[in-house]
Amino acid sequence: MRAAALEELAVLAEQGALQMDPEKDVVNMHCHTFFSFNAYGHSPSSLAWLAKRQGFRAVGIVDFDVVDGVDEFLSACDRIGVRGSAGVETRVFVPEFASREISSPGEPGVAYQMGIGFVSSDVPDVVADIQDDLKSRAARRNQMIIERVNAVLAPAVIDYERDVLPLTPGGNAIERHIVVAYIAAAKQAVQDEAGFWADKLGTARSQTEALINDPPKLQNVVRAKLMKQGGVGYVQPGPETFPTVGTFHRFVQACGALPCATWLDGTSAGEQAMEELLELMIAQGAVALNIIPDRNWNIADAETRRTKVQHLYDVVELANRLDLPLNVGTEMNSFGQKLVDDFGVSELAPVRQVFLDGAHFIYGHTLMQRALGLGYQSEWAQAQLPSRRARNAFYTEVGYTVPPGRAASSRLAQIDRTMQPAAILSQLRAWWS
């Protein structure tokens, strides 16, 4: 059904019946889809269309714990001519930082970690157990939350399989789905919603009355009060809660994708030792770094903004020195997050080009892996481009040279897989420059 709807839109666009924004130098390479949680309800196909309609130069999806949306998304990007990449995100435990908070607030030793540049939703048998473990760990955490919160919110109780899993098409639920289910349960179970939430959240009735009329804010408050640190549903994670960095990276690499470290804002104890952390991640296979720019400059307090913008510049400089391309985006898994970053603001001007380069790098890898099996992790790349810097430069140039769409992908597939990198780039320039 989604493919048919996209096809209809594509035909209308080709006929000139729809107004399409011209392509511009903006990218969003970190968009969650409804296979984990998208605050605006976007499917993989919908995100590809959003990027096309609004003129994003590139777009990338990232879902928690699953790669269910990869095939749909890349197929949609092919059909409508969008530069795309696909990935997965999870949390890992870092024993070397067990006493230091990293990128998961209030949880020492826990870091968000990603894999980018996937080209298929199919997972090799050799790491299928890791994919299954990611899903089962997430399900166990969710069920523990529900057991604790049900005891407090009765009579507004929920059942995981009946009330939560149907909210996500692939059965991959996160905390935000649980929150939605509880709010729906309260509507059914109690007559005085405002009084119920005022009592359960410990807030004034006037506040909950306002929140009920603003569902996104109500969801955020319920999640913060009941499920985050200090809430009744919160369970402090430990070394056994999440996979290790090495295990997750092994899964990503076996899929021909790229392990990607993440950065929050440079204020935690772990991120104040960012070079130590990144060197540790690199030693275990990380080849890129993810940043969410908006949270590091779009801040009301001037002094906080100045501090965090400087942290942003510092980590970008560090990533450049360590040969880590950047993957940037807005997430879109919380209400109020932008559809795309504003690269025109003065705070992002010094880093705008490196953000664009990173998007073209991961698109270039995706192209080469899908069409030829010559992506970043391939034996060909390891032999022909042994250094990360050389590999980064090659895939970035591929990304800038090859246009998006089925026709370009078909032509790229004609390349002789035994050619050397310089010869491939020369051929691509001959075709498209």
Could you please describe the fold and organization of this structure?
This protein is an alpha/beta fold and 433 residues long. Among the domains are: 20-92 and 114-121 and 293-313 and 325-427, no CATH class; 132-226, no CATH class. The protein has 17 helices and 7 strands. The chain has helices spanning 2-14, 44-54, 70-80, 128-153, 160-164, 175-189, 193-201, 205-212, 215-226, 245-254, 274-283, 302-321, 352-372, 379-384, 388-401, 406-412, 421-432; strands at residues 27-31, 58-64, 84-93, 110-116, 258-263, 288-291, 326-328. It has a 7-stranded mixed beta sheet. The chain is globular and about 70 Å long. The mean pLDDT is 95.
Mind sketching the topology for me?
Blueprint: H1 2-14, E1 27-31, H2 44-54, E2 58-64, H3 70-80, E3 84-93, E4 110-116, H4 128-153, H5 160-164, H6 175-189, H7 193-201, H8 205-212, H9 215-226, H10 245-254, E5 258-263, H11 274-283, E6 288-291, H12 302-321, E7 326-328, H13 352-372, H14 379-384, H15 388-401, H16 406-412, H17 421-432
Parallel strand pairs: 1-2, 2-3, 5-6, 6-7
Antiparallel strand pairs: 3-4, 4-5
The coarse silhouette is globular
Terminus-to-terminus distance: 37 Å
The total of helices stands at: 17
Radius of gyration: 22 Å
Q: What is the H-and-E element order?
A: HEHEHEEHHHHHHHEHEHEHHHHH
- Overall average residue pLDDT: 95
